[in-house]
Amino acid sequence: MSRERQHKHGAPVTMRDIAKEAAVSVATVSHVVNNKEGARIGEETRQRVHEAIDHLGYRTNALAKTLSVGSSRFIGLVADAIATTPFAGQIIHGAQDEAWKHGYVLLVANTEGNQAAENDAIAMMLEHQVKGILYSTWYHREIDVPESLHQTDTVLVDCFSTGSGLPAVVPNEQQGGKTATEELITAGHQRIAFINTTTPSPALTGRLAGYRSALEAAEIDFDESLVIPAVPEQEGGYEATAAIIASGATAVFCHNDRVAMGLYDGLREQGLDVPKDMAVVGFDNQEVIAAHLRPPLSTVALPHYELGAAGIRVLLGLEPEQDDEMYLIECPAIRRQSV
């Protein structure tokens, strides 16, 4: 069996093997492999080393190279549950595509909210001397930043931490609320209800501010009685149905698609048709819900893919700096048949 076949199917090829094949020192091989600046190696010797590498099928040890030069082509992503949340999982997809575009590989740790797992994941990434870390949550909220994240460049994705000094890439909740309401105004509605969440969050305040902004821009008076609080689930939308009908609204902006699904059920029980009797717009664009309701639900998308991609660009310094270090990503309208 030839030396090449022995190495390909047996023990890994080492620099010592390359040195023996090329009749040079191990140090010379290391200088060539790592393209060491200032190394005085003749062109003929360099060529022999490359021929030996090709012949024996040598592959560099990426981690060893990382440790020698103090940096790597890895970017870490630590998340609580986005990998198991289908629509939020697009954050990983966006980050992965953007990282690859710029020559980096994404190392993903999905911790499911386990503090010990999170600490271990961050420590492992720091040991690998990653370029930096994206720290992401599956819904937009304020967080306490793990202390170890301050040991490397870190960007928060779909979350933020006031006073931490870390840049945050988050959905523009106010713009999204305004866009949702404008969809209904453009369709000719004047009396528009808003089913808002009962959960304190940027989504609660931001989407309400956007709703009010759209009404003001259209010179429609804000009526507080048209803002109906509900738990942000299907049951919340269903239970809000009576209040919606009593309000005299002809259109409803729902805090999320699950709420809209519950409202659909409640309206159907009352013999009302969407959109003929009541136009409905949701938020999130959970396609497993929105695209499969009857009629399909017009909604506003949470831009998960772009959140991940933008997080990578911010980490690599490819986005213009923001004074408050908050990068707002637009939430686009997704038009279907419920308006």
UniProtKB/TrEMBL annotation:
The keyword Transcription regulation applies. The keyword RNA-binding does not apply. GO terms for molecular function: DNA-binding transcription factor activity; transcription cis-regulatory region binding. InterPro entries: HTH_LacI, LacI/GalR-like_sensor, Lambda_DNA-bd_dom_sf, Peripla_BP_I. Keywords: DNA-binding, Repressor, Transcription, Transcription regulation. It comes from the Bacteria. Gene3D superfamilies: 3.40.50.2300, lambda repressor-like DNA-binding domains. Residues 13-69 form the HTH lacI-type domain. This is LacI family DNA-binding transcriptional regulator. It comes from Glutamicibacter mishrai.
